[in-house]
Amino acid sequence: MKRHRLPNRRARETIGFEFRGSAYTATFSCFPDGRLAELFIDAPKPSNDAADDARDAAVCLSLALQFGTPEAAIRAALTRDGAGRPAGVLGAALDAIVAEAQS
To answer: Which pTM value belongs to this model?
Structure first.
């Protein structure tokens, strides 16, 4: 498998979203064909466990996307509660990105 690298200079978009009562920021870039290519998640308190977990999850997602895993497959595999809400910050970020794209 080959990693699809992004150009050093690329467009990005930043959106805000809430998860478990905290405000987060998601910054993401897409491949030229519009597919999600990378994600950065910033937490309200930059040096705590939740912030570290969010950053690490975003890095893993970005690598998976760049190695060809479809975003929809990742999103469908993430844990959700009985009402379909994301159980983790990565799912919340992906849901926010999809909602932004649909608006």
So the answer is: 0.91
